[in-house]
Amino acid sequence: EACIGAIDAAGALNAFVHKTPDIALERAKAADARLKSGEEAPAMCGIPVGIKDLFCTQGVESQAASGILEGFKPEYESTVSQNLIDAGAVMLGKLNMDEFAMGSSNETSVYGNAVNPWKVDDRQLTPGGSSGGSASAVAADLCLAATGTDTGGSIRQPAALTGITGIKPTYGRCSRWGIIAFASSLDQAGPMTKNVRDAAIMLEAMCSHDPKDSTSADIPVPNFEAMLTGDIKGKVIGIPKEYRMDGMPEEVEKLWADGTAMLKDAGARIIDISLPHTKYALPAYYVIAPAEASSNLARYDGVRYGHRASLAKGEGIVDMYEKTRAEGFGHEVQRRVMVGTYVLSAGFYDAYYNRARRVRALIKRDFDEAFDQGVDAILTPATPGPAFGLGEMSEADPVEMYLQDVFTVTVNLAGLPGISVPAGLDKQGLPLGLQLIGRPWEEGDLLNVAYALE
Ligand code: GLN
Q1: Which residues are catalytic?
Q2: Is residue 344 part of a domain?
Q3: Ligand 1 centroid to 191 CA: how many Å?
Q4: pLDDT of 116-143, one tens digit each?
Q5: Threshold 0.95, pTM exceeds
Q6: Atom of ligand 1 nearest to the CA of 182
Q7: Is residue 405 in contact with ligand 1, taking CB distance under 6 Å?
Protein backbone atom coordinates (compact mmCIF):
# COMPACT_ATOMS: atom_id res chain seq x y z
CA GLU A 1 0.00 0.00 0.00
CA ALA A 2 2.88 2.35 0.76
CA CYS A 3 4.33 1.67 -2.69
CA ILE A 4 0.98 2.21 -4.40
CA GLY A 5 0.70 5.55 -2.59
CA ALA A 6 4.26 6.51 -3.54
CA ILE A 7 3.60 5.68 -7.19
CA ASP A 8 0.47 7.84 -7.23
CA ALA A 9 2.33 10.70 -5.59
CA ALA A 10 5.23 10.47 -8.05
CA GLY A 11 3.24 10.71 -11.27
CA ALA A 12 5.59 13.45 -12.49
CA LEU A 13 8.39 10.89 -12.80
CA ASN A 14 6.31 9.03 -15.40
CA ALA A 15 8.00 5.80 -14.30
CA PHE A 16 4.94 3.54 -14.16
CA VAL A 17 2.95 3.52 -17.40
CA HIS A 18 0.37 0.89 -16.37
CA LYS A 19 -0.46 0.54 -12.71
CA THR A 20 -1.86 -2.73 -11.38
CA PRO A 21 -2.85 -1.97 -7.77
CA ASP A 22 -5.55 -4.66 -7.74
CA ILE A 23 -3.12 -7.37 -8.80
CA ALA A 24 -0.60 -6.03 -6.28
CA LEU A 25 -3.01 -6.10 -3.35
CA GLU A 26 -4.27 -9.56 -4.25
CA ARG A 27 -0.73 -10.97 -4.48
CA ALA A 28 0.25 -9.14 -1.30
CA LYS A 29 -2.64 -10.79 0.51
CA ALA A 30 -1.56 -14.18 -0.76
CA ALA A 31 1.96 -13.42 0.47
CA ASP A 32 0.62 -12.46 3.90
CA ALA A 33 -1.33 -15.69 4.09
CA ARG A 34 1.73 -17.67 3.08
CA LEU A 35 3.82 -16.02 5.78
CA LYS A 36 1.17 -16.54 8.43
CA SER A 37 0.73 -20.20 7.53
CA GLY A 38 4.22 -20.83 8.85
CA GLU A 39 5.36 -22.54 5.64
CA GLU A 40 8.77 -21.49 4.39
CA ALA A 41 8.42 -18.27 2.43
CA PRO A 42 9.96 -18.12 -1.06
CA ALA A 43 12.81 -15.67 -1.66
CA MET A 44 10.74 -12.70 -2.77
CA CYS A 45 7.58 -13.32 -0.79
CA GLY A 46 5.61 -10.07 -0.64
CA ILE A 47 8.33 -7.93 -2.23
CA PRO A 48 6.77 -5.17 -4.37
CA VAL A 49 8.43 -4.91 -7.77
CA GLY A 50 7.93 -3.10 -11.05
CA ILE A 51 8.11 -4.87 -14.40
CA LYS A 52 9.55 -3.24 -17.52
CA ASP A 53 6.94 -2.84 -20.26
CA LEU A 54 9.01 -5.16 -22.49
CA PHE A 55 7.89 -8.21 -20.49
CA CYS A 56 4.62 -9.85 -21.48
CA THR A 57 2.40 -9.97 -18.42
CA GLN A 58 -0.79 -11.96 -18.68
CA GLY A 59 -3.87 -9.80 -19.07
CA VAL A 60 -1.91 -6.59 -18.47
CA GLU A 61 -0.87 -4.10 -21.19
CA SER A 62 2.54 -5.00 -22.55
CA GLN A 63 3.44 -2.51 -25.24
CA ALA A 64 7.22 -2.16 -25.25
CA ALA A 65 6.36 1.55 -24.95
CA SER A 66 5.31 1.46 -28.61
CA GLY A 67 2.23 2.78 -30.35
CA ILE A 68 2.17 -0.28 -32.54
CA LEU A 69 1.31 -2.53 -29.59
CA GLU A 70 -1.45 -0.22 -28.41
CA GLY A 71 -3.78 -2.08 -26.07
CA PHE A 72 -1.92 -5.39 -26.41
CA LYS A 73 -2.68 -7.65 -23.46
CA PRO A 74 -0.83 -10.96 -23.75
CA GLU A 75 -2.52 -14.26 -23.05
CA TYR A 76 0.62 -15.46 -21.31
CA GLU A 77 3.24 -14.46 -18.78
CA SER A 78 6.95 -14.20 -19.66
CA THR A 79 9.07 -16.90 -18.02
CA VAL A 80 11.06 -14.35 -16.01
CA SER A 81 8.02 -12.55 -14.62
CA GLN A 82 6.38 -15.93 -13.92
CA ASN A 83 9.51 -16.97 -12.01
CA LEU A 84 9.19 -13.79 -9.94
CA ILE A 85 5.51 -14.50 -9.24
CA ASP A 86 6.45 -18.04 -8.21
CA ALA A 87 9.05 -16.56 -5.87
CA GLY A 88 6.30 -14.52 -4.21
CA ALA A 89 7.03 -11.10 -5.78
CA VAL A 90 4.17 -8.61 -6.03
CA MET A 91 3.85 -6.70 -9.32
CA LEU A 92 2.88 -3.03 -8.91
CA GLY A 93 2.67 -2.28 -12.63
CA LYS A 94 4.56 -1.82 -15.88
CA LEU A 95 7.51 0.50 -16.23
CA ASN A 96 8.41 3.09 -18.82
CA MET A 97 11.23 2.46 -21.31
CA ASP A 98 12.48 3.49 -24.71
CA GLU A 99 10.32 2.15 -27.52
CA PHE A 100 11.27 -1.51 -28.12
CA ALA A 101 14.24 -0.83 -25.80
CA MET A 102 15.95 1.32 -28.45
CA GLY A 103 17.52 4.31 -26.79
CA SER A 104 19.56 5.55 -23.86
CA SER A 105 17.34 8.28 -22.41
CA ASN A 106 13.80 6.89 -22.28
CA GLU A 107 12.83 9.67 -24.71
CA THR A 108 11.68 7.37 -27.51
CA SER A 109 8.75 6.06 -25.41
CA VAL A 110 5.22 6.49 -26.73
CA TYR A 111 4.30 7.50 -23.16
CA GLY A 112 6.84 10.32 -23.08
CA ASN A 113 10.06 10.13 -21.10
CA ALA A 114 10.49 8.98 -17.53
CA VAL A 115 12.27 11.52 -15.32
CA ASN A 116 15.33 10.97 -13.14
CA PRO A 117 14.53 11.62 -9.46
CA TRP A 118 18.01 13.19 -9.17
CA LYS A 119 18.03 16.86 -10.05
CA VAL A 120 20.44 19.74 -10.43
CA ASP A 121 18.58 22.93 -9.58
CA ASP A 122 15.52 22.77 -11.77
CA ARG A 123 17.12 20.98 -14.67
CA GLN A 124 15.14 17.81 -15.48
CA LEU A 125 17.41 14.88 -16.21
CA THR A 126 17.02 11.62 -18.04
CA PRO A 127 17.12 8.44 -15.96
CA GLY A 128 18.94 6.84 -18.90
CA GLY A 129 17.53 4.07 -21.01
CA SER A 130 16.18 1.96 -22.19
CA SER A 131 15.13 0.72 -18.71
CA GLY A 132 14.58 4.33 -17.57
CA GLY A 133 11.26 3.74 -15.80
CA SER A 134 12.77 0.84 -13.86
CA ALA A 135 15.74 2.95 -12.76
CA SER A 136 13.64 5.96 -11.85
CA ALA A 137 11.14 3.85 -9.88
CA VAL A 138 13.80 2.04 -7.84
CA ALA A 139 15.82 5.21 -7.22
CA ALA A 140 12.69 7.07 -6.06
CA ASP A 141 11.57 4.21 -3.76
CA LEU A 142 8.37 3.54 -5.70
CA CYS A 143 9.18 -0.16 -5.58
CA LEU A 144 11.88 -2.23 -3.93
CA ALA A 145 13.27 -3.57 -7.19
CA ALA A 146 12.44 -3.80 -10.88
CA THR A 147 13.15 -5.91 -13.90
CA GLY A 148 15.20 -4.48 -16.73
CA THR A 149 16.52 -5.79 -20.02
CA ASP A 150 19.92 -5.09 -21.52
CA THR A 151 20.79 -5.41 -25.20
CA GLY A 152 23.63 -2.91 -25.27
CA GLY A 153 23.58 -1.38 -21.80
CA SER A 154 19.94 -0.78 -20.96
CA ILE A 155 20.20 -2.12 -17.41
CA ARG A 156 23.67 -0.83 -16.56
CA GLN A 157 23.52 2.70 -18.00
CA PRO A 158 20.22 3.73 -16.33
CA ALA A 159 21.37 2.08 -13.08
CA ALA A 160 24.52 4.22 -13.20
CA LEU A 161 22.65 7.44 -13.95
CA THR A 162 20.22 6.97 -11.05
CA GLY A 163 22.59 5.64 -8.39
CA ILE A 164 21.26 2.08 -8.21
CA THR A 165 22.63 -1.40 -8.97
CA GLY A 166 21.89 -3.34 -12.16
CA ILE A 167 23.24 -6.63 -13.45
CA LYS A 168 23.02 -8.12 -16.93
CA PRO A 169 23.68 -11.82 -16.51
CA THR A 170 25.45 -14.12 -18.97
CA TYR A 171 23.51 -14.53 -22.21
CA GLY A 172 21.29 -17.57 -21.66
CA ARG A 173 20.90 -17.21 -17.86
CA CYS A 174 17.42 -15.71 -18.07
CA SER A 175 14.84 -17.02 -20.47
CA ARG A 176 13.89 -14.59 -23.21
CA TRP A 177 10.52 -16.27 -23.65
CA GLY A 178 7.74 -13.70 -23.42
CA ILE A 179 10.13 -10.74 -23.49
CA ILE A 180 9.36 -8.66 -26.56
CA ALA A 181 12.37 -9.21 -28.82
CA PHE A 182 14.71 -6.41 -29.88
CA ALA A 183 18.01 -8.09 -30.88
CA SER A 184 17.72 -11.73 -29.94
CA SER A 185 21.41 -12.61 -29.82
CA LEU A 186 22.07 -9.73 -27.38
CA ASP A 187 18.91 -9.35 -25.24
CA GLN A 188 19.05 -10.44 -21.59
CA ALA A 189 16.86 -9.67 -18.60
CA GLY A 190 18.24 -8.74 -15.21
CA PRO A 191 17.38 -7.10 -11.88
CA MET A 192 17.65 -3.40 -11.02
CA THR A 193 17.90 -2.96 -7.28
CA LYS A 194 18.98 -0.80 -4.38
CA ASN A 195 22.11 -2.81 -3.66
CA VAL A 196 24.14 -5.86 -4.58
CA ARG A 197 22.47 -8.19 -2.07
CA ASP A 198 19.04 -7.45 -3.50
CA ALA A 199 20.43 -8.00 -6.99
CA ALA A 200 21.76 -11.42 -5.96
CA ILE A 201 18.42 -12.48 -4.46
CA MET A 202 16.35 -11.22 -7.38
CA LEU A 203 18.67 -12.57 -10.07
CA GLU A 204 18.42 -16.04 -8.59
CA ALA A 205 14.64 -15.77 -8.64
CA MET A 206 14.62 -14.64 -12.29
CA CYS A 207 16.95 -17.32 -13.71
CA SER A 208 15.88 -20.73 -14.88
CA HIS A 209 16.41 -23.16 -17.70
CA ASP A 210 13.50 -22.81 -20.07
CA PRO A 211 12.86 -25.23 -22.92
CA LYS A 212 10.74 -22.51 -24.55
CA ASP A 213 13.90 -20.47 -25.26
CA SER A 214 16.42 -22.47 -27.27
CA THR A 215 19.26 -20.22 -26.04
CA SER A 216 18.36 -20.68 -22.38
CA ALA A 217 21.19 -22.51 -20.64
CA ASP A 218 20.64 -25.79 -18.87
CA ILE A 219 23.04 -25.18 -16.03
CA PRO A 220 22.35 -24.98 -12.30
CA VAL A 221 21.48 -21.60 -10.77
CA PRO A 222 23.62 -21.16 -7.65
CA ASN A 223 22.58 -19.41 -4.46
CA PHE A 224 24.04 -16.04 -5.43
CA GLU A 225 23.33 -14.44 -2.08
CA ALA A 226 25.34 -17.08 -0.24
CA MET A 227 28.33 -16.16 -2.42
CA LEU A 228 28.43 -12.60 -1.05
CA THR A 229 31.26 -12.99 1.42
CA GLY A 230 33.01 -9.72 0.61
CA ASP A 231 36.25 -11.70 0.50
CA ILE A 232 38.10 -10.92 -2.74
CA LYS A 233 41.63 -11.62 -1.57
CA GLY A 234 43.78 -12.82 -4.44
CA LYS A 235 41.16 -12.05 -7.10
CA VAL A 236 42.67 -10.62 -10.24
CA ILE A 237 41.03 -7.44 -11.53
CA GLY A 238 41.88 -6.30 -15.05
CA ILE A 239 41.94 -2.63 -16.01
CA PRO A 240 41.55 -2.39 -19.80
CA LYS A 241 43.58 0.43 -21.30
CA GLU A 242 41.26 0.84 -24.28
CA TYR A 243 38.47 2.08 -21.99
CA ARG A 244 40.52 5.17 -21.17
CA MET A 245 38.82 7.16 -23.89
CA ASP A 246 39.86 10.57 -25.20
CA GLY A 247 37.90 13.34 -23.58
CA MET A 248 36.86 11.21 -20.60
CA PRO A 249 35.75 13.57 -17.82
CA GLU A 250 38.31 13.83 -15.04
CA GLU A 251 35.71 12.85 -12.48
CA VAL A 252 34.97 9.59 -14.24
CA GLU A 253 38.66 8.88 -14.42
CA LYS A 254 39.04 9.65 -10.71
CA LEU A 255 36.17 7.41 -9.74
CA TRP A 256 37.65 4.61 -11.77
CA ALA A 257 40.99 5.08 -9.98
CA ASP A 258 39.24 5.20 -6.58
CA GLY A 259 37.34 1.99 -7.38
CA THR A 260 40.57 0.32 -8.41
CA ALA A 261 42.22 1.40 -5.15
CA MET A 262 39.27 0.10 -3.14
CA LEU A 263 39.51 -3.35 -4.71
CA LYS A 264 43.26 -3.35 -4.16
CA ASP A 265 42.80 -2.46 -0.48
CA ALA A 266 40.36 -5.35 -0.20
CA GLY A 267 43.14 -7.70 -1.29
CA ALA A 268 42.61 -7.98 -5.04
CA ARG A 269 45.52 -7.98 -7.46
CA ILE A 270 45.19 -5.27 -10.10
CA ILE A 271 46.66 -5.80 -13.55
CA ASP A 272 46.61 -3.78 -16.76
CA ILE A 273 45.02 -5.60 -19.66
CA SER A 274 44.34 -4.89 -23.30
CA LEU A 275 41.08 -5.49 -25.16
CA PRO A 276 42.32 -4.30 -28.55
CA HIS A 277 39.10 -4.50 -30.55
CA THR A 278 37.10 -2.32 -28.15
CA LYS A 279 37.00 0.61 -30.57
CA TYR A 280 35.05 -1.44 -33.11
CA ALA A 281 32.38 -2.53 -30.65
CA LEU A 282 29.99 0.37 -31.05
CA PRO A 283 29.92 0.31 -34.87
CA ALA A 284 29.53 -3.49 -34.83
CA TYR A 285 26.70 -3.26 -32.31
CA TYR A 286 24.89 -0.62 -34.35
CA VAL A 287 24.96 -2.97 -37.35
CA ILE A 288 24.03 -6.21 -35.56
CA ALA A 289 21.33 -4.83 -33.24
CA PRO A 290 19.37 -3.02 -36.00
CA ALA A 291 19.77 -6.06 -38.31
CA GLU A 292 18.15 -8.33 -35.74
CA ALA A 293 15.58 -5.68 -34.86
CA SER A 294 14.49 -5.26 -38.46
CA SER A 295 13.83 -8.98 -38.61
CA ASN A 296 12.13 -9.20 -35.18
CA LEU A 297 9.91 -6.21 -35.84
CA ALA A 298 8.62 -7.60 -39.15
CA ARG A 299 5.85 -9.28 -37.15
CA TYR A 300 4.14 -5.96 -36.40
CA ASP A 301 2.03 -5.75 -39.49
CA GLY A 302 -1.34 -4.67 -38.15
CA VAL A 303 -2.73 -8.19 -38.48
CA ARG A 304 -1.61 -9.98 -35.36
CA TYR A 305 -1.20 -7.44 -32.57
CA GLY A 306 -2.06 -3.97 -31.42
CA HIS A 307 -2.56 -1.03 -33.71
CA ARG A 308 -4.08 -1.31 -37.20
CA ALA A 309 -4.34 1.74 -39.47
CA SER A 310 -7.71 2.53 -40.93
CA LEU A 311 -7.83 2.35 -44.70
CA ALA A 312 -9.38 4.54 -47.33
CA LYS A 313 -11.63 2.99 -49.91
CA GLY A 314 -9.65 1.09 -52.53
CA GLU A 315 -6.59 0.58 -50.30
CA GLY A 316 -5.36 -2.99 -49.86
CA ILE A 317 -3.29 -5.10 -47.53
CA VAL A 318 0.07 -3.62 -48.54
CA ASP A 319 -1.29 -0.15 -47.77
CA MET A 320 -2.46 -1.52 -44.43
CA TYR A 321 1.04 -2.82 -43.57
CA GLU A 322 2.68 0.41 -44.64
CA LYS A 323 0.29 2.76 -42.91
CA THR A 324 0.20 0.68 -39.72
CA ARG A 325 4.00 0.61 -39.45
CA ALA A 326 4.35 4.29 -40.34
CA GLU A 327 1.80 5.26 -37.70
CA GLY A 328 2.77 2.74 -35.05
CA PHE A 329 6.57 2.99 -34.94
CA GLY A 330 8.40 6.07 -33.66
CA HIS A 331 11.36 7.67 -35.42
CA GLU A 332 14.18 5.80 -33.73
CA VAL A 333 12.51 2.44 -34.36
CA GLN A 334 11.96 3.35 -38.00
CA ARG A 335 15.60 4.37 -38.30
CA ARG A 336 16.73 1.01 -36.87
CA VAL A 337 14.42 -0.96 -39.17
CA MET A 338 15.81 0.91 -42.18
CA VAL A 339 19.45 0.51 -41.12
CA GLY A 340 18.86 -3.15 -40.32
CA THR A 341 17.13 -3.87 -43.60
CA TYR A 342 19.92 -2.13 -45.47
CA VAL A 343 22.77 -4.04 -43.82
CA LEU A 344 20.97 -7.34 -44.41
CA SER A 345 20.18 -6.62 -48.06
CA ALA A 346 21.78 -8.88 -50.65
CA GLY A 347 24.23 -6.28 -51.94
CA PHE A 348 25.52 -5.14 -48.54
CA TYR A 349 25.25 -8.22 -46.34
CA ASP A 350 28.93 -9.13 -46.58
CA ALA A 351 30.19 -5.59 -46.30
CA TYR A 352 28.24 -4.77 -43.15
CA TYR A 353 26.47 -7.60 -41.37
CA ASN A 354 29.05 -10.32 -41.93
CA ARG A 355 31.89 -7.97 -41.15
CA ALA A 356 30.20 -6.88 -37.92
CA ARG A 357 29.80 -10.53 -36.96
CA ARG A 358 33.51 -11.11 -37.49
CA VAL A 359 34.31 -8.09 -35.34
CA ARG A 360 32.01 -9.51 -32.68
CA ALA A 361 34.04 -12.74 -32.64
CA LEU A 362 37.25 -10.73 -32.19
CA ILE A 363 35.76 -8.78 -29.29
CA LYS A 364 34.78 -12.02 -27.62
CA ARG A 365 38.29 -13.38 -28.19
CA ASP A 366 39.81 -10.32 -26.49
CA PHE A 367 37.82 -11.15 -23.35
CA ASP A 368 38.65 -14.87 -23.57
CA GLU A 369 42.33 -14.02 -23.70
CA ALA A 370 42.04 -11.76 -20.64
CA PHE A 371 40.26 -14.51 -18.72
CA ASP A 372 42.91 -17.02 -19.88
CA GLN A 373 45.53 -14.77 -18.28
CA GLY A 374 43.75 -15.36 -14.98
CA VAL A 375 41.61 -12.22 -14.84
CA ASP A 376 38.56 -12.74 -12.61
CA ALA A 377 36.77 -9.47 -13.33
CA ILE A 378 37.33 -6.33 -15.36
CA LEU A 379 36.68 -2.87 -13.93
CA THR A 380 35.58 0.02 -16.17
CA PRO A 381 33.40 3.12 -15.92
CA ALA A 382 29.74 2.32 -16.61
CA THR A 383 28.96 5.45 -18.62
CA PRO A 384 30.92 8.32 -20.16
CA GLY A 385 29.35 10.81 -17.73
CA PRO A 386 26.44 11.59 -15.39
CA ALA A 387 22.75 11.95 -16.31
CA PHE A 388 22.16 14.53 -19.03
CA GLY A 389 19.27 16.93 -19.45
CA LEU A 390 16.05 15.80 -21.07
CA GLY A 391 15.86 17.04 -24.65
CA GLU A 392 19.55 17.95 -24.64
CA MET A 393 20.67 15.41 -27.20
CA SER A 394 19.51 16.18 -30.65
CA GLU A 395 17.50 13.65 -32.59
CA ALA A 396 19.33 14.81 -35.69
CA ASP A 397 22.57 13.24 -34.48
CA PRO A 398 21.73 9.77 -33.18
CA VAL A 399 25.40 8.88 -32.85
CA GLU A 400 25.71 11.26 -29.91
CA MET A 401 23.17 9.12 -28.06
CA TYR A 402 24.77 5.87 -29.26
CA LEU A 403 28.01 6.93 -27.53
CA GLN A 404 26.26 6.41 -24.18
CA ASP A 405 26.79 2.68 -24.78
CA VAL A 406 30.50 2.86 -25.41
CA PHE A 407 31.50 0.96 -22.23
CA THR A 408 28.57 -1.45 -22.13
CA VAL A 409 27.99 -2.93 -25.61
CA THR A 410 31.16 -5.03 -25.61
CA VAL A 411 29.67 -7.12 -22.81
CA ASN A 412 26.53 -7.94 -24.82
CA LEU A 413 28.53 -8.70 -27.96
CA ALA A 414 30.60 -11.20 -25.94
CA GLY A 415 27.59 -12.58 -24.00
CA LEU A 416 29.26 -11.89 -20.65
CA PRO A 417 27.79 -10.86 -17.30
CA GLY A 418 28.21 -7.19 -16.37
CA ILE A 419 27.12 -5.19 -13.35
CA SER A 420 26.93 -1.47 -12.65
CA VAL A 421 27.29 -0.32 -9.06
CA PRO A 422 26.97 3.21 -7.70
CA ALA A 423 30.46 4.59 -7.27
CA GLY A 424 30.01 8.13 -6.00
CA LEU A 425 28.80 11.55 -7.02
CA ASP A 426 30.16 14.05 -9.51
CA LYS A 427 30.73 17.69 -8.58
CA GLN A 428 27.12 18.60 -9.33
CA GLY A 429 26.05 15.87 -6.91
CA LEU A 430 24.90 13.39 -9.56
CA PRO A 431 25.55 9.65 -9.29
CA LEU A 432 28.13 7.83 -11.40
CA GLY A 433 28.57 4.08 -11.75
CA LEU A 434 31.40 1.63 -12.20
CA GLN A 435 31.03 -1.50 -14.26
CA LEU A 436 32.46 -4.90 -13.46
CA ILE A 437 32.58 -7.54 -16.19
CA GLY A 438 32.83 -11.19 -15.22
CA ARG A 439 33.55 -14.61 -16.65
CA PRO A 440 30.63 -16.36 -18.30
CA TRP A 441 28.27 -18.09 -15.81
CA GLU A 442 30.18 -16.67 -12.83
CA GLU A 443 27.63 -14.08 -11.77
CA GLY A 444 28.13 -15.19 -8.15
CA ASP A 445 31.81 -14.21 -8.17
CA LEU A 446 31.00 -11.03 -10.07
CA LEU A 447 28.35 -10.04 -7.52
CA ASN A 448 30.85 -10.73 -4.75
CA VAL A 449 33.44 -8.39 -6.29
CA ALA A 450 30.70 -5.77 -6.73
CA TYR A 451 29.76 -6.31 -3.09
CA ALA A 452 33.31 -5.44 -2.07
CA LEU A 453 33.11 -2.27 -4.15
CA GLU A 454 29.72 -1.20 -2.81
N1 GLN B 1 21.09 2.19 -25.99
C2 GLN B 1 21.28 0.97 -26.72
C3 GLN B 1 20.41 0.98 -27.94
O4 GLN B 1 19.72 1.91 -28.15
C5 GLN B 1 21.03 -0.21 -25.86
C6 GLN B 1 19.62 -0.46 -25.63
C7 GLN B 1 19.38 -1.70 -24.83
O8 GLN B 1 20.26 -2.23 -24.18
N9 GLN B 1 18.16 -2.19 -24.93
O10 GLN B 1 20.39 0.06 -28.71
Answers
A1: 52, 130, 154
A2: no
A3: 16
A4: 999 999 899 999 999 999 999 999 999 9
A5: yes
A6: 9
A7: yes
